[in-house]
Each structure stands twice: as structure tokens, then as C-alpha cells.
Amino acid sequence: MVADDDGVTVTVTDFRGGTLEAPSSEPPDEMAEHGRGLLLVDRFASAWGTTHDATGKGVWFRLERRGHVPPPLPEATALVPDTSVDPDLAVAAAERVAWLVSVPDELRTRLTLPQLIAELLQRLCEIVGATGGAVWLDEGDGAGESRLASCGRVPLVRDDAMVVPLHLARPLSGRLELYPAGASALRTLAVLSADRMALTIEADRLRAADVRRRSWLTFLAEASELLAQSLNVDLTLALVPQLMVPRLGDWCAVYVLDEWGKLGLAAGTHRDESQWPVMKRLLSGPDAELAERLKETAELGLTVALSRPVEGIAVPLAARGKILGVLTLGRPADRLHAPDDVTVVEDIARRAALALDNARIHAERQRVAQAFQQALLPAALPQAPGIEFAAEYVPASTGTDVGGDFYDVLEVEPGRYLVSAGDVCGKGAQAAAVTGVVRDVLRALARDGLPLPRIIELLNRTLLEQPDEGRYATLITAMVWREGPDLCVEMCLSGHERALHLPRVGECEFVGVEGTAVGLLEQVKVTVTSLRLAPGDSLLFYTDGVTERRNGDVMFGLRGVCRAVTPLAGHPASVVAARLRTTVLNFSDEQPKDDIAILGMHNSIED
User: What are the pLDDT digits (tens) for 152-168?
Assistant: First the structure.
């Protein structure tokens, strides 16, 4: 403690560490003599601080006598040099730097990337006094670096050059060169300009990438739409190479795996069609390396590179967890495939594989439907001296649906025939199943020698007992046998169109009495109609696909049936049935919306 005339100075030094007070959540005692820290010092002292000497660290403070004002602190001496500059020079320098890196919008939008970089380079050369400069860019596509822009004289030997790297995102890399190197102080301006160039290059790259992505999205959407519209295996295989060439490569070939797991060339194309035969020989030839690469792609499901002479890539065609084949694509003539190209090719390959698998599934279902349909129709109609049977059948769908129309001729006993035609409600497998039941029950009951009314009643009961409710059938059945030169016919209609009697001489007429469709009601109305077919006469059965064929608002109808066959009176049943089929189909340009079944019989015995 030191006292003088003006006040007292107190210095407190550390002697040793004291005990630490345990932390407590309770507020401190207001009357406690400790815990105030430097608050009191700051409140009452005119000055305070710390001191350090050989004995340790201390804290000092000074208390002035009442009424004494401490002298002001001496003014600090000017230790910092005067850095003031001429404002006009500062503004001029700022404008010069802004001109170095700023290009007006109206000019920037008109310039291409090389032109814009050349403009920035020209400005840099003017400011730093360089005689020439160049900007080099490597796009990372394997083609190496190229000169993006230059100005002034670019020497052949560029040893004396200031080199500034361009900070670009991978895979891009580049550098700025100024000739000659110049003063090192000018490097800051070169770095500033290089950063501006790098920003310009990156912005252009991002814009180009965005345009490419939008273009690829449009391309993928259009390709998907084309592939989705095809349910034909051969058409799908032929479509895939056409999508790839020339946009993604110079040539494209599709290999598919057969049932033994062997790859075979299925389709392909070349930018120059005259070169495809040569390329086809290379792709299907005995090249062991190519075969090994294709096998690797098919087995591992990986994209692999192909070496010369068929330089390109091979991509697996995978759908629903299985490999269907391999898509090979030759590289464009002027460049290698970029990563974005490979990504798009792999995407197209996945979509193509799915379309190919869908087409195969559709083709298989179509074969099953056709086989099912053929199983419901007789393979051949019986023929006997003096009687001819003929039939025509046109399914409304050539796809995977099975029609409900049918016809059948069964020789119950020598010289006696069960002739039937009908239409089961609905389409598809359920309708086909009911068709099979109707056909088999008719055959079984007819072989038992039951009369037609009883056969219809038992068939009706059988359909009512089926678990699939709401399935019914319209039916026309007849027993045919010969008595002398005539054919005797006993016929029953069950909700079906009347038959057409076409005599050799005279007008055609529709015969039969309407009855109840089978499978609807417990009790059915069955009426037997008897008639005789004289030599040369014909009897024609047909389903509603004939009479209900439309051309706009006009229906073919019963009159159309009569007009179509009347000129053919006395002709064989095959001629009459074929003529009716052709006339019905030509009645409208549209595809039939219902199955068409025609069954005819003709008394061909000579008078």
C-alpha cells in the first residue's frame, strides 16, 4: 500500500491458492465479506489493473482523495503510418478492378463461353501489361486439354509465363497463362480474373448440364411411351436400336438369351445402313474377347466396356430380377461415352428389358388363349356322302381373351348328327370354361340318346349348379338325319337367333321358335321345330356377332344375312358360310366387337 498527497495505491498479490467454494443454487448472502470480486474496485477506484513481477501476479487499484481530479492520460503517439489516399485515385482503381471482372449483361448474353473468356482475358492482359495469354481447359472426357481462349501472342515455348490454376469442380480442370510472367505483385489481379473465369466456366457447365438433363428426360419419356405401346416381341427388339442410334452411338445391337442360356443377336442397326452387314459379321463372329465380355455382362449384370474393333459398352437387359439379354452400343465417332450417356443407356436398357418381358408375357398369354380357343372348337367337321358341314369363326379379340361363341357337330350314331352353335355371356377364361361345360354336356347327353328338349333342360340345370353365377348361354341345337333324299332336322332355340333356311329354289326364310336361354331360370321354354332339307337346300346357324355388326348407326341385321346368301342358293355350305363371313366383315371398317360364328349344312345329294 503506497500513499501520497493525492491518494493511495493498493496492490494485492497472490500468496497461495485458497479453497474453492462449493457451487450452490442458493443466492449469495448480501452481507457476506467475500465474493464481490472486482465489482467494488471498479465502482470506487479511479484506476486499476494487474501487475506481474518476479514474486508473482498482483491486482492494484488507486483511490483518490476527495475533490482531487486525476490528470488526463497523455495522448497516444502516432505509431501507425498515415495510410490516407487520394479519393479520386481510389475510385479510379475500384472502377478498373470492376472493369476487369464485370461484363455487362447485354454483352454476356450474346457471347459464347470461349468469346466471354477471351473478353476477360483481353481485359486482364491490358491491365497487367501482358503481351499475350491463354486459357486451357480439360473437360475430363479423355480427350485431354484444349485451348479455350487466347489473346495477343502465344509463344511456342511458354517457359516465361505466369500460370494461375482455375478452381473448377471435377472432372473439369484448367489454368490461365500470361506471357511474359511479369511482376509478382500482378499475380493478385491474375488470380482474381482466374476466379471470375472459373465461375463463368462453372455457370456455363451447369447451364449445359441442365439443358442436357431436360433433353434426356424428354428423350426417356418419349422412349418409354414408344416401348410401352409395343406388345410384340419382334417389334420391341427392332425398336430398341432405333432409339439408340444415332443419338447415343454409331451402332447398336441387341442380344437375347434363349431357353438354354445362350446369347444370340436378335436386332441391330448402324448410323450408316450400308455398314450394318459388316458390323453384324463382327458382332456375331468368333471374336473370343467380345464373347467373353458379353458373357460377363449377362452373368454378372454389369455394364462393361468393349474394345476395338467394336468399341463401345455392353449393358445388361434386366427385368423382374432376371437377365433377358445384353444391349451393346458403339461409341459416337467424335467422342467417348460420357458418364451421363452411360446413365441414360442403362436407363433405356431397363425400360427396354421391361417392355421386352411384357411383350413375351403377352405373347405367351396369347398362345395360351389361342390354344384354349382352338380346344373349344372342333378340329374338323364330320363329312358324309350327301351332307356337307362348313363353319367360319372370327374372334373379336386377337389378344389374350377367349371368346364365348362356339359351334360343334357330333355324329351321335351312324348317319345321325348333333349340330349346335351358341354364345356364352362374357369373355375370357370364365366364359371359356362355361363354353366347355355347354359343349361337353351336350355331347354327353346326346350320346345317351335323350331327346333335344330333355337335353336342354338338363343343360340348364347343370349351368344353374355352377359356382359362377350369372353365366348363361344362348343356344341353337338340332338333330339331323337322312330320310331318302331329304335331310330331316329337329331344331330348338334357346334365346338364340333363328336359323336361315336357304332352299335351292325359292325365297330364304328364318325358321325356329324362340325359347329361354340356358342358365338363367329354373324352368326353360323349349319348342321343337321340324323341317326337311331337299337336295340342294342349306341351313345356316350364326351368332349375334353377325346380325349386330354395325356401320355407324346401321346394323347388319337379318336382312343383311338374307341378302348376302340368297345369290348362293344351291351352292356348297363352305361357299355360303365364307360369303356370309366376308360380307359381314366388309360391312364396317372397324374391328368386330363381338365374336362371329357361322355354321352351315347343305344337302348335297343329287336328285
Answer: 887 777 777 889 999 99
